[in-house]
Amino acid sequence: MTEERFFQILEAYGADPAHWPADEREAAQGFALARPELVAVATSDEMVLDELLDRMIEPVADTALLERRVLARLPRPAMPDWMAPSAVAAALVLGVCLGFASGAVTVPQDDMDTIYADAFTGYEQDWVDWLGDDA
Length: 135
Known about the structure:
Helix 2 (22-34) packs across helix 3. It contains seven helices and no strands. It has helices at residues 3-13, 22-34, 36-56, 63-73, 83-106, 112-120, 127-131. Helices cover 70% and strands 0% of the residues. By secondary structure, it is mostly helical. The model has no long low-confidence stretch (mean pLDDT 79).
């Protein structure tokens, strides 16, 4: 165990050896016993930090409770009641416009006269003929 690695473990995991990585725990404890004067100051500083962190952290056993606490602290979106229907209406209008525009774009200009002629030939017929016997 090098001095640099020991202090990395101490800074990352705190002063309690139970929190140190299991594969390096024995070597780190051996290093601490071999150099007590070097380790004493750093360990005492880390112990103070560990105590402060332990006081700040509330133990939460129930994950559903934790989820409710987190969700309760999230800010609520301030969206007026008219925004959602307006967004739906805008999407509908845009879709209709794009649908009509794509028809005009995909039809070659030579066929436009034929399309207009076919579209308006029904106006020459009498509407009563369409109703049949109901008229």
